[in-house]
Amino acid sequence: PESQPSSDLGDESPQDTGFWPVLNNRNFLVLWSGQVFSQLADKVYLVLMIALIASRFEDSNETISGWVSAITIAFTIPAVLFGSLAGAFADRWPKKSVLVFTNILRGVLVLTIPLLLWISEGWRFAALPLGFCLMLAVTFLVSTLTQFFAPAEQAAIPLVVERRHLLAANSLYTTTMMASVIVGFAVGEPVLKLADSLLGQNGTESIGKELVVGGSYCIAGLLLMLLKIRENNNSQAESAHVFEDIRDGLRYLGQNHRVRAAMSQLIVLFCVFAALAVLAVRVAQVMPALRADQFGFLLAAAGVGMGVGAAILGHFGSSFSHRRLSTFGSVGMAVSLGGMALFTEQLWPSLCLIAMLGFFASMVGVPM
């Protein structure tokens, strides 16, 4: 839908540059605040799942890598199945409604986990505990809702920010994503542990962890209710063209080899980081200095590396060709992953290598 930012976004002069005009924009601040809580909840959600698996389903005779892999797959499948379709629908539905309801529904789903685990205790489905199967179902639904939230959030930015301020707005958006990786994975475990200790004083099973994650999603939804977006709602007139939009996108990819190559490299990059989430759990499990549920410190190191790399590329990346940056970044990622095999039980070398992995990954992700 075509639309322009509303006139109450602030009296911005043409000389306004940098982040101040964006931060002075009330609607963008609302959108950004919702993003902060939603992104943090997304990252801490995986930490929550690992903590629940470790406390309820871990067997002393086996690792939890298989359980974690199943959760990761359940979180990834909706992106493959519904990513394009959700983006096409989110483009036609009112952005505010999508942003609010996807967050509220994700929060409600997370808050139902303690009840589901209590009801299913002692039951099994095939060879798996029924409670774990229900966790997989909740993860699948949360990820499905995320497929609608993400494109609506990105499409809302140019609806509340003037064109000349889009670079600053997108920079804040990307920085928040990187920061949520660092903060969410690094402090997720201690925050969840603190919430359990505060709410589990009577010897009963605490639901503090679920309240933190589900509450963050709900807070994001409540904040986004304050958002004001002026857009034309053509959902009824154009709903029949959703699949045609997807076909147009596929045809465009078939004709534009540069975009097709960039997307292919991004797919490989995301696969590496999905595998890294599972690998980090196993590394934390065998490392004397960490526990399995503290794997977030390792992933946070990757976020630090990506943030540093993105900042450097922002200043000096234009001096190099995109293809050269991508090639150098891919080789660097391979070397970093190979080096991790030599230091699987040593904390600081592993942190440095994972940070290097994130740094080189930015050389692939940012140019592409």
What's the helix-strand series? HHHHHEEHHHHHHHHH
Helical/strand content category: mainly alpha
Q: Quick check: average pLDDT? A: 82
Main pleated-sheet profile: 2 strands, antiparallel
Helix content percent band: over 70%
Structural shape: globular
Please characterize this protein's 3D structure.
By secondary structure, the chain is an all-alpha fold. The protein is 75% helix and 1% strand. It has 14 helices and two strands. Strands 1-2 form a two-stranded antiparallel sheet. Strand 1 (124-125) and strand 2 (128-129) form a beta hairpin. Helix 3 packs parallel to helix 6 (130-160) and helix 3 (65-92) packs antiparallel against helix 11. It is globular.
